[in-house]
Design a protein that fits this description.
With 337 residues, the chain is α/β, with parallel strands linked by helices. The chain contains 8 helices and 8 strands. It has one domain (55-275, 285-333): 1, 4-beta cellobiohydrolase (TIM Barrel, Alpha-Beta Barrel). It has helices spanning 68-71, 77-80, 95-111, 139-153, 178-194, 211-220, 239-254, 327-333; strands at residues 86-88, 117-120, 159-162, 198-202, 228-231, 262-266, 293-297, 300-304. It has an 8-stranded mixed sheet. Strand 3, helix 5 (178-194) and strand 4 (198-202) form a beta-alpha-beta unit. Helix 3 runs parallel beside helix 4 and helix 4 packs parallel to helix 5. The two termini are 23 Å apart.
C-alpha cells in the first residue's frame, strides 16, 4: 500500500443498366415535362452513423452488493453504498481462477448497466515485503495471470488500476529488480488495454516521489499503452495537491511526446484537511473522502474509491491484517471512532 515520500471518401455506387443485344431502332419518344406543381423527389445521400458513445462516459460506477461494508449493515451505509474497486490478488491464484472471478464481477456490472472498477495487485515482490507483501511467484506466472484477467474483462468496458505502489517503489533497496518490474507493468498495460479496459498505471502520490521522476518511471513502465495513471491509492493527500502534481507528471510525459494521457485520483480516505506527511498505516485522523464519480474535466477523469474504506492497511494503529474488514477503522473514517 502507499506509504512514504519516496495512448470517405464516400464511395458512390455506379448503377449499370443492362441493355439488350440486338434491339430494333428506337421509336422517338416525346420528352415529358413535369407540371409546374410536380414534386421532384431526391434520395438523400447516405451518411455514416455517428460513433457510439463509450458507456463509461454515461453509466454510473458499480456498487458491489457483496462488499464487507455493505454486509456490515446500516451503520456503515455511507461506505457500503458507494462504488469501490474489486482487488484482484493472488487469492485468485491461477489464470483460470482469476479469469472466472473477473468475469463474474464485470458481468454483474454490465447487467446492472454500471461501470466496474478493478485493481490488479499481484506483481512479484509486491509492496517490497511490507504489510501487503506477496504477489505472484514468478514473472512467467504473472504474465499468465494477467492474460487470465484480460480474458475475463473482454467486452465489459471496465476501469482497471494496475499495481498500486509498484512504480513509486522502484529503486527501493528492499524491492525487486526495477527493470523486470517495468517490463511486467508494460505487459499488463498492453494486455489489459487490448481487452477494452481503461487502464491506469499507479503512479504513487504527491508526497512520495517528484513529478519528473514519476513521469520517467511511467514512461519506462508502459504508460503509452494505458489510458493514463492513478494517484493517491490507499493514501490521504488532498485532491487539489494530487491534481497539481498529476499535471506536472503529464507535463513530463508530454516532453517525451506521450500525449493525451488522463488520470484518476483515489479519494476514498482524503477527507481530512491536513494529512500528516509520511503517515500511511491506519492513521487515526483519516476521514472518508467525497463520493466517487467520473467527471471528465480535461485530463482529470475523476475521483474513485480504489482503496476500500474500512479495510485495514496492516498491523498498525490497532488494525488487523492488510485488506481485512475492520469496523473500528471504518468508524474512525466516519468520525465516530
Amino acid at each position: 500500500m502507499s506509504r512514504r515520500p519516496l495512448a470517405a471518401a464516400c464511395a458512390a455506387l455506379a448503377l449499370l443498366a443492362g441493355l439488350g443485344n440486338a434491339a430494333p431502332a428506337p421509336a422517338v419518344v416525346p420528352a415529358v415535362v413535369p407540371a409546374a406543381d410536380s414534386a421532384v423527389v431526391r434520395t438523400p445521400a447516405a451518411t455514416a452513423p455517428a460513433p457510439a458513445t463509450d458507456p463509461r462516459r454515461t453509466r454510473p460506477l458499480y456498487v458491489d452488493p457483496t462488499s464487507a461494508a455493505k454486509q456490515a449493515g446500516r451503520e456503515f451505509w455511507r461506505i457500503g453504498n458507494r462504488a469501490q474497486a474489486m482487488w484482484l490478488t493472488e487469492r485468485f491464484a491461477t489464470p483460470t481462477q482469476v479469469r472466472q472471478a473477473t468475469r463474474a464481477y464485470t458481468s454483474k456490472a454490465v447487467k446492472a448497466r454500471r461501470t466496474a472498477v478493478l485493481t490488479v495487485y499481484g506483481v512479484p515482490g509486491r509492496d517490497c515485503g511490507g504489510q501487503s507483501g506477496g504477489g505472484l511467484p514468478t514473472p512467467t506466472a504473472y504474465r499468465a495471470w494477467v492474460r487470465g484477467i484480460a480474458e475475463g474483462l473482454k467486452g465489459t468496458k471496465p476501469i482497471v488500476v494496475v499495481e498500486p505502489d509498484a512504480i513509486a517503489f522502484m529503486g527501493d533497496p528492499s524491492c525487486a529488480d526495477a527493470a523486470q518490474r517495468q517490463r511486467l507493468l508494460s505487459y499488463a498495460a498492453q494486455q489489459l488495454s487490448r481487452s477494452g479496459a481503461w487502464v491506469y498505471l499507479d503512479a504513487g502520490h504527491s508526497d512520495w516521489r517528484s513529478a519528473a521522476d514519476t513521469a520517467t518511471l511511467l514512461l519506462r513502465s508502459g504508460v503509452r499503452y494505458a489510458r493514463g495513471f492513478s494517484t493517491n491509492v490507499s493514501n490521504y493527500r488532498l485532491l487539489a495537491d494530487e491534481q497539481a502534481w498529476a499535471n506536472e507528471v503529464l507535463a513530463g510525459l508530454r516532453s517525451s511526446d506521450v500525449l493525451g494521457k488522463k488520470y484518476v485520483v483515489d479519494v476514498s480516505r482524503n477527507g481530512y484537511a491536513q494529512p500528516v506527511s509520511g503517515e500511511w498505516c491506519n492513521p487515526g485522523w483519516a476521514r472518508l473522502g467525497p463520493r466517487p464519480a467520473l467527471v471528465f474535466r480535461g485530463p482529470y477523469d475523476g475521483g474513485l474509491w480504489i482503496k476500500r474504506p474500512g479495510e485495514s492497511d496492516g498491523y498498525c494503529n490497532g488494525g488487523p491484517a492488510a485488506g481485512a474488514w475492520w469496523p473500528e477503522g471504518a468508524r474512525r473514517l466516519l468520525g465516530k471512532g
